[in-house]
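hey so i finaly got around to running the thing on Tyr recombinase domain-containing protein from Ralstonia holmesii. pasting the sequence first so u can double check i didnt mess up the copy paste, my clipboard has been acting weird all day
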Amino acid sequence: MNLQSAFAHFVELTPTCATGAIGAQHISNYAASLGAHEIGRLGTLNGLLQKWVELGLPGVEPECATYLLERKKPGNKKGEPVRTRNPVVGPLSEEEYTALYSAVNTAYGRGKLPLWALLLTRLLLACGGRISQFASLKLCDFDSATFVLSLPQVKTGLEHARSSFLSFDISRQTGLLIADYINGLRAEGYNDNSAFFPQALVMPRGSRKKLRASDDMFYGHCTPNTLSKWFKARTEEFAPPTSRLDFAPMPLTPKRFRYTFGLRLAEEGASKVVIANRMGHADLQQVEVYVAASPKIVENIDKTMGALLVPLAQAFKGQLVQDEEHSTHKGAAGSRIIDFRVSKDPVGSCAGKGKSCGFNKPVACYGCFRFEPWLDAPHGKVLERLESEREAWSDDERMAAVNDEPIRAVKEVIALCAQVWQQRAQQESGAAS
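ok and heres what it spat out for the 3d tokens, dont ask me to read them lol
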């Protein structure tokens, strides 16, 4: 909650002051009018009014500062979404994390999700920053040579949101996408000082009002609320179903990504100091909840139960083809996909000819919409290898779960192949009789 919205809420619920100044009684009446879920607003208002009195500005009686300091100000129940693993507002589960990553990649690949929304999704997962940090981000904050992102710190108490930065190493695959994205913006006239997520790009229809003056440091930037709103609007259409909500689409908000980032750090064994540093906290108080919520509850899904627990969303998103002759590119360079660890025979073709693809082949291929598996190919051997790797990591659920989505996709391909062979056998049997 920001100071402006906190004060606006106070003014809305407070009668006009007869003396023209806010007094302790107004604060008391306001506090009494708040519901249990709103009481945290008083803590935010406290910071504003304390500063107001300190500056000696008219409009707030000095008694307000004393009253607020002496009054116990209960805050929001910090950490409850993480502590309870809330499926609506808390951190994503491992299954949800993987499914979401795959879903937004597919949506972008099919031209249904803009690149800025894909990149914001990946950066939220990779950096765990607040949406206000990404709203303050500029093109110059990414180094295309080293793939390092300098994320502005917004709660350091310094003069403005670009006085302090925290560096994050971005994966090569995402880094190349960011480099292409920045080059595209530069071609449209943007420069180093331009917003990383420009208002004109995020809001294609434009804002109904001018958000910032042309001499403002953040001219052309979205406000945090605007960026959050449009991000949610762009991604919720592709939110995959989650078993934690009876297979309803998972709710997506930037704060859930931050919770997920912190919890994953704790589950990987990071110390409180490291977690606090990576999340931009000045002390360790806020990170206790992540450490307390770890270690992760391991869900050991038995192989024989797998079919009963498969999520409604299909893991395999490609198109089964008879052979290479029936594929999109019919054997063109870069289109053939082979896993030499199991066989010299190809498992399928890539409709995109592997262009600009940095994913792990063929593991990632089975979950890609461009994948064209062949009917008569060693899919069973690929499955055996993936399941063997999963078994080898059985002591580390995070590592073991990496292949869960590909395993499901390979099983679906094998099932489709079996279905085709069965149909052909029935047709041949019928023709013979």
